[in-house]
Predict the structure.
Amino acid sequence: MIQREVTDKDNLTWTCVQAYAGLEGDAAEKATELSETDNGQVTVVCTPSGQAQTVRLEVAKDWLDSLSDEDLVQQIEQAR
């Protein structure tokens, strides 16, 4: 499962992973297809290292490569 870690201004480390990312093969392709929105976005779940609550984000499906750490943190802060 591929994940990303980012740290916000409050020094919380967030671990973000795409929903259904742990699946493999045909099941992974089907799950990604089903979880993709009409505008080509996917759900990413970000879990904090501290007391803050987990957040769900809708991001571009190439978020691992295209979304900067700063933009990811900003989206997390907006979702909190």
Remarks:
- Strands lie at 3-7, 13-18, 41-48, 55-60.
- The chain is about 30% helix and 30% strand.
- The radius of gyration is 13 Å.
- The mean pLDDT is 83.
